Each structure stands twice: as C-alpha cells, then as structure tokens.
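Lay summary

Proteins are chains of building blocks that fold into shapes. Our project writes down both the chain and a compact code for its shape. Here are two examples, one after the other.
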Amino acid sequence: MQDALSKANRYRQEANRCYELAKRSSPGFLRDTYRKVAVQYLFMAEGELQVAEKKDAERREVVVPDVAATGAAED
C-alpha cells in the first residue's frame, strides 16, 4: 500500500510541476499541453489512491472459517 501512496504523491508533484510550467509558457499550445499533462498526472494519482484503498480494504477483511466444514461445531 505504501508503494501506491508514494506513487500517488509523485504523480501529484509532477502535476504541480507541469501546472507551473503551463503558467510560465508563452505559446498557447504549449500551455495547453502542459495543462493536459498535469490533468493526466492527477488522474494517475487518483488511480493509485484507489489501488491503495482497495488493498487496504482487502487487508481489513476478516475471513470467518466455515464452522460446519471444520467440524468444530460437533459436540
């Protein structure tokens, strides 16, 4: 899970960097390109956060053994 969170953080940092480049770029097409790349990085960060949440939810799942299958209920 830590790996997905660190990836999400790196993607957010890259999105910020691209956004700053977009603010300083002079041709309009270059500005638009940097903004689009920044948005793509934000989507990638969101995807990594979803992966981390899914792994966390799977880790928290409690597996309850089937009592009838184990024979523990026989008294």
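And here is the second example, written the same way.
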Amino acid sequence: MSQELEQAVAPELESIDGVAAEVMETMFFTEAVVAGCSHGWLSEALTARVGFDGTHCGEVFLTISPEAAQSIAAGFLGLDTLELAEPQLEQVILELANIFCGAAMSHLWPESSLMLDAPKLVDAELPVEGFWHRCFALPEGMMAVSIGLRGPMAPAEGN
C-alpha cells in the first residue's frame, strides 16, 4: 500500500470493510465478509474501475467472481439468473462499483470534493501492489476491492 494511502486510511481500514458489507447488504441483499486473499478466481472474474479526482485522486477496482456477479445482478434486478442477459449483468456490476466507490470516498473523506468517473469494465489485472486491497467472501463467490491514490489533481490553466 502506498505510504500516502496508508496514512490516509489506516484508522479507517476496518470501517471500509464495514462500508463494503453495508453496500452489499442494503443495495444487493447479500453478505460480504472479509476473507483471506487467494486470487485463483480472478482470471474468470469481472473487473470494474472507477477513477476519482478532486481533493483526492485515484482509482477503485472492484472485481467479482462470475457466480457472485450473476447472483447479485439477478437479485438487484429481481430476475432469475436464467433470465439475466450479459448487458444487464455488466450494468449491475458497474453500478456496484459506482455505489461502493461513492460510499468509500464519502466515508474516508466526508469533507472532500470529489468527482467520480463513469465506471468501466476493464480487462486489467486487479492491482494489489501500492493499493489498499481487501477480498470478501460472498455467499455465491468472491469479491475483491483495490483502492489507490495518486498525486493531487493539477489546477487547470488560467484558474
């Protein structure tokens, strides 16, 4: 984890675990419990990235196993997993990433001014080095979250 991120979130790490649990329970009707990191499942998973800029700049990567993604998307949309189309599944995972990022940033820096990028599905490997990283066990599979900071946003010319 970067030294800046470690200093910024060290006291809040356990409460970020709580943010993940709360988001999953209230918005997606499932449980998320901190789990040991065994990343063998990541190669088949869906990964969404949400960048943020403002008083803090960085990115959040949220990765979810296929089984968990299907269950969460079906529950969120009120569908059976057999009724779920791929675009619907992807949209729900993007929404999950957006909700988690907003909740985590609001928790970490409630007085800050941040703008979130639109979430995007990415093929990139989930970053761990230099990032705060946590894995969660869900009833249907796994979820991993990585949060990284980079230098503050440079002011625009003429401002």
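What can we say about the second shape? Confidence is low (pLDDT under 50) at residues 153-159.
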